[in-house]
Each structure stands twice: as C-alpha cells, then as structure tokens.
UniProtKB/TrEMBL annotation:
It is a single-pass type I membrane protein. The chain crosses the membrane at residues 135-155. Keywords: Endoplasmic reticulum, Membrane, Signal, Transmembrane, Transmembrane helix. Belongs to the EMP24/GP25L family. It comes from Phoenicopterus ruber ruber. InterPro entries: Emp24-like (IPR015720), GOLD_dom (IPR009038), GOLD_dom_sf (IPR036598). This is Transmembrane emp24 domain-containing protein 5. GO terms for cellular component: endoplasmic reticulum membrane; endoplasmic reticulum-Golgi intermediate compartment membrane; Golgi apparatus.
Amino acid sequence: QVLDGAGLDVDFHLLSPKGETLVFDERKSDGVHTVETEDGDYMFCFDNTFSTISEKVIFFELILDNMGEDGDDQEDWKKYVTGTDLLDMKLEDILESINSVKNRLSKSVQIQTLLRAFEARDRNIQESNFDRVNFWSMVNLGVMVVVSAVQVYMLKSLFEDKRKSRT
C-alpha cells in the first residue's frame, strides 16, 4: 500500500525462484496477493521509475502461513499421553481450541496492522490537504488586502479636489 507520495501509485513485481513473473501490477495504490510457494528465493520489487521526481512511502506485510507446521509436530504430544480414549479426545479438543485461538489472534494482529497502514495513508493525505488549504487561504488573504488597498486609493482619488486653487 502506498502511504504517501504523488499519485499514491507504484509498480509491483513478484518473481518466483525460477525467474517467472507471478504478479505484475502497474500503478496501483494497494493490493493483496496470495501465492502458493515452493522452495527457493522469491524476489519482489516496488518500482517508482515512472515518477522519479516524487518519492513514495510504502507499507507492505509478508504473511507466511503454515511455516514450520508439519503434521508430525502436531502429533508428538500423543506419544506422551497414556490413558483412555476419552482423555485423548479431550486433549485433542483442547489442542484444537488453542490452535483456533492462535489463528484468530494472528488474523486480528494482521487486520490491526493493515488498519494502521490505512490510518497512516489517510493522515498523510489529510496533512497534505491542510497545507494546501493554508497556502491558498494565504493567497486569498493577500489578494483581498491588495483589492482593499486599490479600493481605498480609488475612493480617495474620487474625493480629491483636482482644481488648482488660487489664493
């Protein structure tokens, strides 16, 4: 997401480890991309060459799902449990509840981070508008002062006595 900069747009490239282009966005202000990955190094690039005069502030978040979660790791706890099937069932329910809470918490953290990025972008736009309004207000004030000075001068010139008096 582009937070600040002229046009609020940027090009985005995502390349696979084989060098294939997975995602190419031109002049977008924000985007969400989900990619099935394979082993290797991925390359992503935010390109601003079309607008070299203005700099951009960019927020991005890389979310890696299922990193390091193998099915064997999830089942290791079962070899330490002895007892009835009822006990196994309750422990599975507890593990499922804990995983559900963990997933929901991570999603809420992602949403809060995204909302902070939206807030930062909106704040930058608001500050830019504030500066623009102040500038044009000062220009308007200057024009009004000049117009009032010209009006006073014109009114004075109407009431001046143009005749030369002989005394």
